[in-house]
Structure formats: C-alpha cells, structure tokens
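> Could you send the Prefoldin subunit 4 prediction when you get a chance?

Sure thing. Input:
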Amino acid sequence: MLSRRVLSKEEESESTDAEVTKEDQDKINTFSRLHNRSKLLEEELATKQKDKEDLEELSTELELADEDELVPYVNFAQTIIVSPLFSSLSTDRILNVFAHSVDRYKIGDSFMHLPLEEAQDLLSSATTDIEEEVSTLQEELGTVKDEIGQLKAHLYARFGRGINLEA
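Output:
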C-alpha cells in the first residue's frame, strides 16, 4: 500500500509539539478576529473607493451641464427620475452615488431639483466626506495589519511549523 507523506522525516523530527497555553490561545483568537476584521475593512474600503469614483464621474457630468438647468438631485434610494443630463449613468449607479448622503439630504420620500451650483456644492461636500472615510478606513486597515504582523511573528516563533496562519 502506498502512503503519502506530507512532511519529510527530517521536517517531522523538527516539528515541535509545544503545549498551547491560555495566552497562546488568546493570541490565536485575537489573530482570527483581526484577520476577519481586515477582510471586512478591505471590502468596505473597496466599496467606498467605488463610490468616490462614481462621485468624481458624476462631478464630471455636472461640469457639462447648462448652468440655467435644474439638476435632479436624489436624496433617497427608493424614487428617482433621471434627466438626460445623467443619460450615461445607470439609475442604480446614481442611487449608489447618493446613497451615503441619504441622512443629510433626505426630505421625506422625495427628490428635488436644484440649481447646478447647489448640486455641485452638495456633490463636493459628499466627495470630501467620502475621501475622509476612505482615509480613515485606510488608517484602520494599516493598524489592523500591523497587529496581525506582530501576532504572526510571535505565534510562528512559538509554534514554528506547528501552526498555519496563512489564509
């Protein structure tokens, strides 16, 4: 009968069966929580960066608008009327762009037409807000990754090949 060996005899003899203490288990659990948190932060960061790109694209579209024309400004994610101004953007895309500013500009369940300058001001404010959110998320993700690195170093030093922290 053929048997497969995962580790060579030399690697097997090098492996240590270190006893896992409560402190070690706490560090493993912390590593797991931080790893999950980093994945969530990466997803949220990607979403915010996409929203930022959408806001920038919408800002470009508004630059092409006639100054005397009223611009439909969506302030909630249930009803929308899209003017020819936004013909290159899908309704879902416009909803995604303005979804994060629902609380600030919501007036019941409606939308409003705004002068171009006011729409650009609101868009500029929303862009600034999302840039701050992206920056905050990047800082938090960096902090989490630093903590993960420290825990990895400690746990690999303690357990060597007896633990796998790569995902």
